[in-house]
Amino acid sequence: TPSSSDVQLTEDAVRRYLIRKPMTTKDLLKKFQTKRTGLSSEQTVNVLAQILKRLNPERKNINDKMHFYLTE
Amino acid sequence: SSSEADEMAAALEAELNDFM
User: Fold this and answer.
1) Which residue out of B1, B2, B8, B17 would a mutagenesis test of the A interface target, given it has the greatest number of A Cβ atoms within 10 Å?
2) Binary contact (A44, B9; C-beta < 8 A)
3) Which among A1, A72, A8, A57 is positioned nearest to A37, based on CA atoms?
4) ipTM of the predicted structure?
5) Tens digits of per-residue pLDDT, B1-20?
6) Apex CA B10: angle with CA A60 and CA A17, to 5°?
7) Which run of H or of E encompasses A20?
């Protein structure tokens, strides 16, 4: 049920994380684990992709991994 | 599992690569 999920995958939540520090796609997926949001893996990937396309965050490589970040 | 996380990350990056 929706009430069992304690984390919501929203544009606001993603923005807050990316303002705080640069994150890889894997870092973001860890923040919105399916068992915590109640979404399926496919939904999570699709929703996160849509949100990232809208936010259009800056990108930089740290330790050879692409990280997204936003500035306020 | 970490392999599922890897698969999801790969799928997400593939989606975003079309856009970037």
Assistant:
1) B8
2) no
3) A8
4) 0.81
5) 578 889 999 999 999 987 65
6) 50
7) helix A11-20
Q: Tell me the residue ranges of DSSP E strands in A1-72.
A: 58-62, 65-69
- Out of B12, B16, B19, name the one closest to residue A29 (CB): B12
Collect all residues of chain A within an 8 Å Cβ-Cβ radius of residue B12.
25, 28-29, 45, 48-49, 52
Both tokens of B2, joined, read 């970490």
Could you report the per-residue pLDDT of A2-61, keeping only the tens digit for each?
555 689 999 999 999 999 999 999 999 999 999 999 999 999 999 999 999 999 999 999
B 1-20: CB under 8 A from A: 4-9, 11-13, 15-16, 19
| Closest CA relative to residue A31, chosen from B5, B19, B3 | B5
- Which two tokens mark A5? 């999920």
